[in-house]
Amino acid sequence: MTTVVEPRTGRILGWKDAIPLNYEYTAGTAGEAFLRGLKAGRIVASKCGTCGELRLPPRTHCLQCYGRARFDVELLHSGRIAALSTAHLDRGGIRLAPHSRTTFGYVAFEGVEGGLAHKILGTGRRQVKVGDPVMPTFKPPELRTGSVLDIACFKVIVSR
């Protein structure tokens, strides 16, 4: 600690100090269920026991009616791209070659409030568009850690 003292009166004018604070945040009950689901290769949402609303990421209480929600509903169907953005510059501000660009999207699921933001992998045949159907591609089980990054990307579903 350093102190600034007025020389003639001895009055303390200010001081500089630090309080070491270490925080540990937990994901909470619903967040833990979501992360455990990802580690198992599943996307888990919550369902309100009162009004039936589905929400992703899951919550313990419904945002519409404040009812208790269970958070064990697995989303088995594909999602759709609701928004897109492509990174044209790297972290240093250098323009990326077209084949090196990363596309990110917000994936929404039918009948579910909310969604997930993640990397989007196109087919190479055409440019990825809002509204395209996508499916999650998970990392191999031995590489999963219980993180949203356990999803390697969302791949665009090619209709034949």
Biggest sheet strand order reads: 6-7-8-10-9
What order do the SSEs take from the amino end to the carboxyl end, as H and E?
EEHEEEEEEEE
> Biggest β-sheet, characterized?
5 strands, mixed, barrel
Q: Helicity, in percent?
A: under 10%
Rg of Cα set: 23 Å
Instruction: List the uncertain runs.
Output: none
CATH topology: OB fold (Dihydrolipoamide Acetyltransferase, E2P)
Percentage of residues in strands: 35-45%
Characteristics of this structure?
5-stranded mixed barrel; two-stranded antiparallel sheet; 160 residues
Quick structural gist:
This protein has one helix at 28-39, and strands at 2-5, 12-16, 44-48, 54-56, 69-74, 79-87, 102-108, 112-121, 133-138, 151-156. It is mainly beta and 160 residues long.
Fold and architecture overview:
The protein has 160 residues and is mainly β. The chain has a single domain, classed as OB fold (Dihydrolipoamide Acetyltransferase, E2P), CATH 2.40.50.140. Helix content is 8%, strand content 38%. The protein contains one helix and ten strands; from the N terminus they run ββαββββββββ. The protein has one helix at 28-39; strands at residues 2-5, 12-16, 44-48, 54-56, 69-74, 79-87, 102-108, 112-121, 133-138, 151-156. The strands form two sheets. Strands 6-7-8-10-9 form a five-stranded mixed beta barrel. A two-stranded antiparallel ribbon has the order 1-2. A hairpin with a 5-residue loop joins strand 3 and strand 4 (54-56). The longest helix has 12 residues, at 28-39. It is extended, with a radius of gyration of 23 Å. It starts with a strand and ends with a strand. The mean pLDDT is 90.
